[in-house]
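Researcher: Next entry in the queue.
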Amino acid sequence: MNNYLQYFKDHHKCYVVFDFDGTLVDLDIDWSGWESGLQLIYKKFENTYDTLTFTDRYSIYNEMIEKYDDPIWQEIIDFATGYEKTHFKGYTENLNAIDAIVNGIGISFHVLSANTHILLDPIFSQLGIKDQIQTVIGREDLQYEKPNPEGLLEIMGMNSNLNEWLMIGDQESDEQTAQNAGIDFAYVASFGAWK
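Model: Structure for this entry, 195 residues:
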């Protein structure tokens, strides 16, 4: 049996939320200009803004959204969509995770991603799993970025049986998001090779 499906069965998981990049697929994107592009947007709204460092990029993003609301959010969405569209070169799929989605009868699958629908939607169609995924939440669907649980809570809706939920991701921010929503988390690496 597939490692994912065995885990879902053993841990009584009925609802599974996957992160996207680094979890379901590994995107081939040159991210080297990402932070500097965000910095330009931040500086436009707050001229005292200095630098964005990797260790605090999530908190800075969420703080800027909190402070400047829709105007900065829209600029970030426009930047993100354009950046992903122009820098995307391809992807490698996690065949074991895709197989679990295809064969996970009775399990409700969802995706929570910081990527935009410009990438998410066509890739899910290419992988043949678009119809198996109940909810896809991308960057433009949310105000805040992980580890804020906004997206995860939206996916979960009114389902209060938190023990039936699992989030799978590759980053500490994914784990913190699951913790902030009160559900279990597993690192994608714990399921073995992508094959």
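Model: The helical segments are 3-10, 34-45, 57-87, 95-103, 117-127, 150-156, 172-181.
Researcher: Noted, moving on.
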